[in-house]
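== Sequence entry ==
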Amino acid sequence: MNENKRGRFVGYSLGALQIFIGLTAIAGGFGLVSDPSGTKMNIPLDWLRDSPFTNYFVPGLVLLIVNGVGNFFAGIATFLRNRYAGTMAVAFGTFLMLFILIEVEFIGLRTLLQPLYLILGLIELMLGLKLRKLVFTIPALRRQAATKI
């Protein structure tokens, strides 16, 4: 696969992943912010017993804004081929993994969604690194080759 096709494949895969993460995090975050008791989402408030939170409002707000809206707009930037899309993916993938690891530390492993989103965050991080490499190295190689002709 040539570099141009590989770059498009990485970009489309990453953008779709970011939009998926963003939309699902917006839905989950909105659910927690609109009902901080967790009742409507069948999430027991008792899970927060060993955490610094008394309800799900703050974790839901972070989920909604950073993981949700942030990933959604990062996905749009990826599809628009913004030169910082890879860097945004690295940042949001890292944040998602940290969010999940901190969540598991405080409430324990409660659902299969936790390891799933940890893996999705890792994939987002890896695709972001790959996209950054493609964006920042290939144009430099092309300029270097052009000066030799």
Q: What stands out?
A: The longest helix spans residues 113-148. The helical segments are 3-34, 57-79, 85-107, 113-148. Residues 63 and 122 are 17 Å apart (CA to CA).
